[in-house]
Amino acid sequence: QKDEIILALETSCDETAAAIVKGGNQLLSNVVATQMEIHQKFGGVVPEIASRHHIEQITLVIDQALEEANLTINEVDAIAVTEGPGLVGALLVGVNAAKTLAYAHGIPLIGVHHIAGHIYANRLEKEFQFPLLSLVVSGGHTELIYMKEHGDYEVIGETRDDAAGEAYDKVAKALNLPYPGGPVIDQIAHEGNDIYDFPRSWLEPGSYDFSFSGLKTAVINKLHQLKQKGEEFRIEDIAASFQASVVDVLVEKTYRATEELGVNQLIVAGGVSANKGLRVELEKRFNEMDVELMIPPLYLCTDNAAMIGAAASIQYHNQNYKDLSLNANPGLIL
Ligand code: KG4
Ligand code: ZN
């Protein structure tokens, strides 16, 4: 059986992306047109503007992905696309482009869950060893997902309010730092010290759920308090203290879950997995464990279409196809 060639599209937020993935784990091309600078002016993603830019970019990134892979559309076996979750207007651009290509060329159409994509980004680096646990931390999600086999996702914990990346972005805004906040806070945190002892939200004993809105509020209150009293402070120390709290909770809960579930691998995914503080602490913690730690390279952590193609490969082999009634689903469940 020959390795299938999948053309994958991802337009759920502010990156217009297309990639070619062969056999589920060979990345032939990976094109990402980011709109980050455009949204930076507004301090966050503006949905209407995102949709408009996706429309301008989508055919360009598709052509480039094919060209870089040295392929024509006739050599593609299936089209995959993120169907949700995400911004509905943004998702629609990818979904309609995918439906058009699948229909015009008479090839299967595969709808992929964005989080399944983030998890499968890791498979472009190394084969999965089940059972495994995945920590998905992004701007929209903070989830612990247990997997017994390919395509089987059991959410054992999730955030009850803000996602980890969202907390980074909101704290950055309060500190007058540019969007997206994660990378900047991560960077300055390393020049500061954890002196503010912000709360850690452990929730009920045994719970694998997360909560970051209390921490966000504590940081904002502290800032007001410091400013009101006219006390001197360094935003580096605020960033370091905030990051210490986030990383503490993420690492501790993840560690406990891997022990309790007896998994072979821990897979870290999503934009926040680019965080240096988180990477260092996870490496320390999992160094002497029997659990293999997998963190994808930076270009596979943030949104891209390669991960969508990798996840779609499993669906391709199960003939889990969609027909042309496929619609964008902003609230899609994993
Ligand atoms: O996965 P992603 O690109 O898009 C979503 O699906 O949300 O994640 C984006 C999020 C943003 O909130 C951004 O601030 C955060 O990931 N992020 C980081 C870092 N790099 C990106 N957060 C913490 N540390 C970083 N180094
Ligand atoms: Zn994402």
CATH architecture of the largest domain: 2-Layer Sandwich
| Helix and strand pattern | EEEHHEHEHEEEHHHHEHEHH
Structural class: alpha/beta
> Care to count the β-strands?
10
List the bound ligands: 5'-O-[(R)-(carboxyoxy)(hydroxy)phosphoryl]adenosine, zinc ion
Radius of gyration (CA) equals 20 Å
Q: Termini distance?
A: 29 Å
Share of helical residues: 40-55%
Biggest sheet overview: 5 strands, mixed
CATH topology of the largest domain: Nucleotidyltransferase, domain 5
Q: For the record, what CATH class of the largest domain applies?
A: Alpha Beta
CATH 4th-level superfamily of the largest domain? ATPase, nucleotide binding domain
> Mean pLDDT, rounded to whole units?
95
Percent of residues in β-strands: 15-25%
Count the DSSP helices: 11
Multimeric organization = single chain
**How many domains make up the 3D coordinates?**
2
Unreliable residue runs: none
Q: What is the overall shape? A: globular
- Main sheet: which strands, in order across? 3-2-1-4-5
